[in-house]
């Protein structure tokens, strides 16, 4: 996908060409708050082919069952070629102390060896073993510059200035 095509589907302003790629789970999650920030890197969402349905509690219970079973849902195709990127920023909400099942699919289907992986995680309590799990799966990649973005209901606990500093460090 070239820049003009990407601009048509991106929620973010595109900057100068670079070698960083941001992959994040989208849906009913805390990540939507981050979508309002201008990030000058290539951003593409990924999502399961079959969306979760029901009210909040139903979705939480579906997520728990899927994490407990190690379920990896089919995800929609990427709109970019990962070979074109040296750095991949992976965002996920925390589901039952680890990354979302759609992220599990992504991490199991794509070889990230030799890449720099920068995870950002959002949560409403505790990240559990999320980062340990990411490092375990991405063992042939450099996992660095991690950020934990906590929320209390729909309010971000981390200060906006700390988030902006992290974004600037990228």
What is this entry, summarized?
The protein is 28% helix and 24% strand.
List the helices and strands and how they pair.
Elements: H1 3-9, E1 20-25, E2 42-46, H2 56-69, E3 87-95, E4 98-99, H3 101-109, E5 116-123, H4 130-137, E6 142-143, E7 147-152, E8 155-156, H5 160-169
Parallel strand pairs: 1-2, 1-3, 3-5, 5-6, 5-7
Antiparallel strand pairs: 3-4, 7-8
Q: CATH homologous superfamily - what is it?
A: Flavodoxin domain
Any idea of the CATH topology?
Rossmann fold
Biggest sheet features: 8 strands, mixed
Number of helices: 5
InterPro entries: Flavodoxin/NO_synth, Flavoprotein-like_sf
Pfam family, one: Flavodoxin_4
Protein name: Flavodoxin-like domain-containing protein
GO molecular function: FMN binding; oxidoreductase activity, acting on NAD(P)H
Verbal overview:
Helix content is 28%, strand content 24%. It is α/β, with parallel strands linked by helices and 170 residues long. The chain has a single domain (3-169), classed as Rossmann fold. Strands 1, 2, 3, 4, 5, 6, 7 and 8 form an 8-stranded mixed sheet that branches. The chain is globular. Residues 10-14 and 25-41 have low confidence and may be disordered.
Keywords:
170 residues; alpha/beta; eight-stranded mixed β-sheet; 5 helices; 8 strands; 24% strand
């Amino acid at each position: 996908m070239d820049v003009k095509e990407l601009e048509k589907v991106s929620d973010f302003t595109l900057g100068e060409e670079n070698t960083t790629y941001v992959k994040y789970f989208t849906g009913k999650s805390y990540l939507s708050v981050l979508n309002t920030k201008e990030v000058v890197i290539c951003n593409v969402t990924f999502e399961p082919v079959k969306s979760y349905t029901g009210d909040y509690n139903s979705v939480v219970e579906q997520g728990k069952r899927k994490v407990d079973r190690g379920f990896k849902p089919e995800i929609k195709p990427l709109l970019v070629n990962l070979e074109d990127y040296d750095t991949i920023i992976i965002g996920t909400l925390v589901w039952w102390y680890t990354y979302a099942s759609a992220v599990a699919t992504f991490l199991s289907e794509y070889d990230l060896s030799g890449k720099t992986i920068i995870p950002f995680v959002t949560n409403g309590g505790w990240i559990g073993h999320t980062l340990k799990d990411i490092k375990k799966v991405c063992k042939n990649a450099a996992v660095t510059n991690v950020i934990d973005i906590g929320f209390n209901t729909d309010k971000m606990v981390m200060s906006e200035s700390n988030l902006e500093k992290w974004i600037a460090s990228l």
